[in-house]
Amino acid sequence: MASLQDIRRRINSVKNTRKITKALELVAGARLRRAQLRIEEMRPYADRMQELMIGTSRAASSFRNLALLQRRDVNRVALLVVSGDRGLAGPFNGQVLRRAFELERQERAEGHEVVWTIVGRKGASTLRFRRYEIESQWAGFADKPSYHDAQAVGHRLAELYEAEEVDRVVLVYNRFESALVQRVTATDLLPIPEHVLERGDDEDMTERERALRGDFIYEPEPEEILQRLLPVYLETEIYRALLESAAAFLAAQMSAMRSASKNAGELIDSLTLAMNRARQAQITQEILEIVAGADALTQ
């Protein structure tokens, strides 16, 4: 049985750990609110981008021959996995990597070769530990990405696709839904789906899209404008995923640290009870020794 001094030392250690987890929970909560604001601020830009692409594609005589829209037989699939740079976030990194490995097994079963591209130190270290070859990796911005970071990722993926080194690009990331729910999402990045350039009935169109259907003279030609817009759309989609992943990481970390603080409190209560029992047993033992000594003197 542990001594009274050992129990006291362990209680102090757990209390110090709880201070750290409480501080991390508060920091993650404050940063999560800022991350949510960044997502909300980015959405209008993404909407306007898609509206401009839809209007330009309607004016173009043909756009299906553009490099980022071309579909071909799939032999090599690139997986872009968005993980975190740090841990202490519960299942955040583990669940996105499990989904990526599941996709890898599916692609290999269909006879496709898998090319790994990774965002975040945790994902890269896991792949290296499993002896996977990583084609491209980026780190240092997973919890606070900028548009410049998304540009670097998008530029590299576009290079791989246009050079026909890969025939399809799949994005795997944690999508932020709420402070308690982060859902792993896998979506095709390249080739860019044609449905993003199309909109159904006129009733579904926004006022801007209706305006873009007017009789305009484009300079340069609509096809050339669209060719310039497609890489920007790709970067925007990657940036959105990076922001979603950053918010999901902070939410997962806040939840994990709250659970850790709660568990630390329960452990402190349990150790305090054990300490009181040990102290009571020690006092009882001392009383028994005093009584036994007194009885020995009276005999």
Q: How many domains make up the 3D coordinates?
A: 2
Which ranges are low-confidence, i.e. pLDDT below 50, for 5 or more consecutive residues?
A: none
Distance between the termini: 35 Å
**Residues in β-strands, percent:** 5-15%
Indicate the radius of gyration in whole angstroms: 29 Å
Tell me the CATH superfamily of the largest domain: ATP synthase, F1 complex, gamma subunit
Tally of DSSP β-strands: 5
Known CATH architecture of the largest domain: 3-Layer(aba) Sandwich
Describe the protein's architecture and organization:
The protein has 299 residues and is of the alpha/beta class. 61% of the residues lie in helices and 12% in strands. It has 2 domains: 65 residues, Orthogonal Bundle (Helix Hairpins), CATH 1.10.287.80; 225 residues, Pyruvate Kinase, Chain: A, domain 1. Strands 3-2-1-4-5 form a 5-stranded mixed beta sheet, with helices on both faces. The mean pLDDT is 82.
